[in-house]
Specification:
The structure is a single chain. The protein is an alpha+beta fold. It has one domain (about 1-30, about 45-75). It has helices spanning about 15-20, 45-55, 70-75, and strands at about 1-5, 10-15. Strands 1-2 form a two-stranded antiparallel ribbon. Strand 1 and strand 2 form a beta hairpin. The protein is elongated and about 70 Å long.
Length: about 80
């Protein structure tokens, strides 16, 4: 995309491929998101750590060889 001047305005020029991919036609309204002001992404959840913390509150430790998911349990 390129920003160009059109009289007293700035316009965004979209490639024909972008227009086609988004299904835009003349007269459509579009919204822009300022990526610099976008909120930071949420922290990734760690289900394994959450489960261990939940187990701690019940004073029930997991066995040392406990497998937390199917892939980990089936490693040969």
């Amino acid at each position: 995309m390129r920003v160009a001047r059109w009289g007293d305005h700035l316009v965004v020029l979209l490639s024909s491929q972008a227009v086609q991919d988004m299904g835009l036609v003349e007269g459509d309204e579009v919204d822009f998101v300022d990526l610099k002001r976008r909120p930071a992404p949420c922290e990734k959840r760690d289900p394994k750590a959450e489960f261990l913390k939940a187990m701690d509150q019940f004073h029930w430790p997991a066995p040392d060889d406990y497998k937390f998911d199917r892939d980990e349990a089936n490693v040969r």
